[in-house]
Amino acid sequence: MTARSSSNTRLAVGGVVIAALAAAAGFGLAKLGPDRPAASEPAGRQVLYWYDPMVPAQHFDKPGKSPFMDMQLVPKYAGAGGEANGAGVVIDPARIQNLGVRLASLQRGSLSTDATVAGSLEFNERDVAIVQAKAAGFVQRTYSRAPGDIVAAGARLADILVPEWGGAQSEFLAVRRTGDTALTSAARQRLLLLGMPPATVAQIEHSGRPQTVVTVTTPTGGVIKTLNVRNGMTVSAGQTLAEVNGLSQIWLNAAMPEALAGQVRVGQSVTATLSAFPGEIFSGHVSAILPQANAESRTLTVRVELPNRGGRLRPGMFATVQLGGPDEPALLVPSEAVIRTGRRTLVMIAQPGGRYLPAEIRIGREAGGKTEVLGGLSEGEKVVASGQFLIDSEASLSGVQPRLMGAEATEPGRPAVAATYETIGRIEQVASDKITLSHRPVPALRWPAMTMTFRMEDPGLVRGYKVGDQVRFGFEQTPTGPTLRRISRAGGQ
Description:
Blueprint: H1 3-32, E1 47-52, E2 55-60, E3 74-77, E4 89-90, H2 93-99, E5 102-105, E6 107-111, E7 115-122, E8 128-132, E9 137-142, E10 150-151, E11 156-161, H3 164-178, H4 181-193, H5 198-207, E12 213-217, E13 222-227, E14 234-235, E15 240-245, E16 249-257, E17 269-274, E18 282-294, E19 299-307, E20 318-323, E21 328-334, E22 339-340, E23 345-351, E24 355-367, E25 370-375, E26 382-386, H6 388-397, E27 420-430, E28 434-439, E29 450-456, E30 470-478, E31 481-489
Parallel strand pairs: 29-31
Antiparallel strand pairs: 1-2, 1-3, 4-24, 5-26, 6-21, 7-16, 7-20, 8-15, 9-11, 9-14, 10-13, 11-12, 13-15, 16-19, 17-18, 17-20, 18-19, 21-25, 22-23, 23-24, 24-25, 27-28, 27-30, 28-29, 30-31
């Protein structure tokens, strides 16, 4: 046998051995496969439902292809996202630390009702004087006045010749010379009825000569807003010659956002600062809240009256307005913790075991970085103040539904969470299982101030209280009626 044929024989035998080993390995893997769980499916875990990650709110009872996207449905296992072990979504503590999550507690505090808005100075339209011609005549002279001039009371505007006064004045002088007191008094009254100023009639009596030229003057001091008298013009009786606006008080019109309009009251004190007078504070009070809102800026006009000592304040100046008000108690959360979706308002509640649950809330006023909570949360609950948007996204992808306000809105199969409402009232009557209170309005329920009876599951809540006490109390709306949950004495007692 040659060396070449021996080499070919060895190669053939090696190929047969390799093929046999490959077949044996494939058979072994095939035997082992059915006995091992797939790496992508957790062993021993119950599948609750299947869902499309792009539409997590829609659940399916069996696997398959998503009707929304060209992709397979994903199983939701018991214990993932909190479905089996409690409401909420569970997030790895390492991820929480990386997100910089910060928690804050719902606490009772004082919410400032101060508001700072912009405004502008305007003329006080209640302090306007109209100068009119008392009789028809001709303008003989003007006194170089113009609109915008600031004048004192009695400032001359024009000299007007009134021809029809000449005959009446001559008749008065003739009657006066007769010495008949009754006729003289009647003739004097006629002159006054013709529109002659009393000063002109007195001058006629003193000089004994007719005065057919009358000088028109301003009745009050202020700024000339309009002036319609010129040399040589003819005027008719009752024609408006000038309009004078007083400057002793001036209006400050402040643009108040609708959200803050409920905090303003007529008579409320106001302070203002102007760039024209740095470091100086001007004080006034709210005289009116105009009834019409600006549709473009969504603001209401609050009219403030400011004293204008020395006439330094001029219409058209801009001002920064500070409307002060008493601090009011409220349940508060950091404003940065509130998530506004457009349809509702949410916060992320931190629960035991590293769980986070979105909860719907009703909010009220906002000031100083704090937001008032009117319903949906209870005092002491902890919310996420930083990183809540990423946690909310995780909850949405996991299909976790928010906790809604009120038991009537709770999902089937999910425990009811009743909202707690708070207000201040006066004890009218106390019984073993109920209490009657005259309370303030409850905005979250749109209740006005009224007297009503509340159930008590724990009579010990009112131990030590008596009729007439002013109290702050919290209650829930239950199927059996409003139920008292907590009570404390109001401030000052």
